[in-house]
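Researcher: Re-running this chain for the archive, since the previous output was lost when a drive failed. Same request as before.
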Amino acid sequence: MITSSAVRLWIGAAGYCTHPEFLTLQGGSLRAVSFPAGFACIQHPEHGYILFDTGYSARFFEETATLPQSLYRYITPVIYQEEDSVISQLEQQGIMADQIKYVILSHFHGDHIAGAKDFPQATFIYLSESYQAVKDLSSIRAVKAGFLAGLLPDDLTERSRVLHRSDSQPLTSLLYSHLGHDVSRDNDLITQEFPWQTGYDILGDGSLIAIELSGHAEGMIGLLVSTTNDDYLLCADTVWSSIAFTENRPPHFLAGMIMSDRQQYRLNLQKLRQLHLSSRSIRIVPSHCKQALQQWGGRWL
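Model: Regenerated structure tokens:
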């Protein structure tokens, strides 16, 4: 176990969008394939239920009913039914919306924040640069950045606990040390397995460690968590599918049009591949990977 305490983890998807495969994967076909709008529910032994992203909701269609916002859903057609919503899926697990204490937002694209208003009691956690990059954009630029401001609660800032880059800590002080390993050995382990050097202690107890994965979107974060049996990296949109890092197949050049930083994207893709090759025990979960959802989704881990 790489984090300080085990949590329970439930991986799901709240709707799907479709893209031509070649845009998301080098050598992919021209046919449109589906990409789940992934989210995760975490049950922490002390803090209760925590969400990582929220997928789609009916509000996405309300917010994209007219131009220019409607360009969003024309470019990325969405398949969604009300039973796909996060709150519907949580209720099937006996979890009510007001039981969600925290919602961690990896970034502010519409397919990650569309359910945010469904959790009026939750505190939102995200990296400051992620919100700052989109909050003041004009409507056209916001659509290009995949951001729909109307999806966010009006009191977002009042209910936010914002991470700042100055809050980051060396991973050597966040991972493994709780196991009582020799510090030099811990450093070696982290250097070998983790190409990222710093992270964010979300709850202050070492159980949820965020890592900045900018490139797809400015200030995007992923999340390292451990269950009783396995370690996971919820890597958000660092890649659209696991094939990208297992076979080293980056997206098409045109996909860079929606990226905040092409160079940073390529760098974090290579770091994800490095993690895959150096630490086969860590399960890497991209938000939009159908294979990862089929393998680990729909049950408590």
